[in-house]
């Protein structure tokens, strides 16, 4: 009953904000704030610089595929969604007990999809495809709108418990061409290296590189789209694996959009993970599309402990702009939100 009452309250607040006009302006920016529409399928956010949708059912978590619109240029993300969430996992094979794993927990490797590095699912199911329904709720502020959602895992590997909790907070500041995202896991299990797998920023659908001209990985540099014309596994090229003492100053992963009809370059769509030390592994490989998976955590965790990451995702005119925004917010791992405002935090 509390969840229903809270969501009804936010629906009323959102409706009043829309009827009353602009929800506010960001400091230093002119123009209206966000308008919010909600139905049984999704929450739709419309601002002066950015539009986005968050699905409630079907393919859930993160920002819905091709809904993130850069109003200034008209470009949208060409993938399956942004900050899309999967399983809780560890390194190491599940071969010895794979036949006893429930649901979608079995993890096959030695293939073009997952490469040669053995891994195992600890809790599931995969949130994006199997959770089926989430209950996101909206917080309206003077110069922002936030959406919070989460899911409790219901499947576990032998010897592990179910019940770990994933929570996601998305903040859309008025006047910006990007949004902020924080993913947090509170584990019910003990692990020497539990991690959360997410699509970050998201995959790139393309035909012979028609939707993007190049990829940028801050720990690798620029990669032309011609490198992604044929399939290859994640550990063949462009794989990032965290090495203690060698963590890069920034983790920025993005791609330079281009119009598939005209071939003209557009903005960059990128994800800035603000504490590079939380990224344990990151893929960028071709498997029918460019797969950009990122794994966060990968360190010891005890029951009741949490880990997470905070990122900035959206549109940028240049790599220099990405670096400036990154450095302004570096070192953060979480987001705190109330009607009074939002803040990036050092803790998840």
What does this structure look like?
Strand 15 (212-217) and strand 16 form a beta hairpin. The protein has a domain at 84-128 and 148-345. It has 348 residues and is mainly beta. The two termini are 28 Å apart. The model is unreliable at 1-32 (pLDDT under 50). The protein contains 3 helices and 26 strands. The chain has a 9-stranded antiparallel β-sheet with strand order 9-10-12-13-24-19-18-15-16. It has helices at 2-20, 127-130, 319-329, and strands at 35-38, 42-46, 50-55, 63-64, 69-70, 81-82, 84-91, 119-124, 137-140, 144-152, 155-156, 165-173, 178-186, 191-199, 212-217, 221-224, 240-241, 251-258, 265-273, 279-282, 285-286, 290-291, 293-301, 306-316, 334-338, 341-345.
Can you tag this structure with a few keywords?
348 residues, nine-stranded antiparallel β-sheet, seven-stranded antiparallel β-sheet, 10% helix
Task: Give a brief description.
Helices cover 10% and strands 41% of the residues. It is mainly beta and 348 residues long.
Radius of gyration equals 20 Å
Q: Helicity, in percent? A: under 10%
Low-pLDDT ranges: 1-32
Strand order of the largest sheet: 9-10-12-13-24-19-18-15-16
How would a textbook summarize the main sheet?
A: 9 strands, antiparallel
Q: What is the beta-strand fraction?
A: 35-45%
Estimated structural class: mainly beta
Instruction: Say what oligomer this is.
Output: single chain
Please state the overall shape, judged from the principal axes of the Cα atoms. Answer: globular
What's the order of the H and E elements? HEEEEEEEEHEEEEEEEEEEEEEEEEHEE
**Terminus-to-terminus distance:** 28 Å
Query: How many H/I helices?
Result: 3
The total beta strand count reads 26
Overall pLDDT level: 92
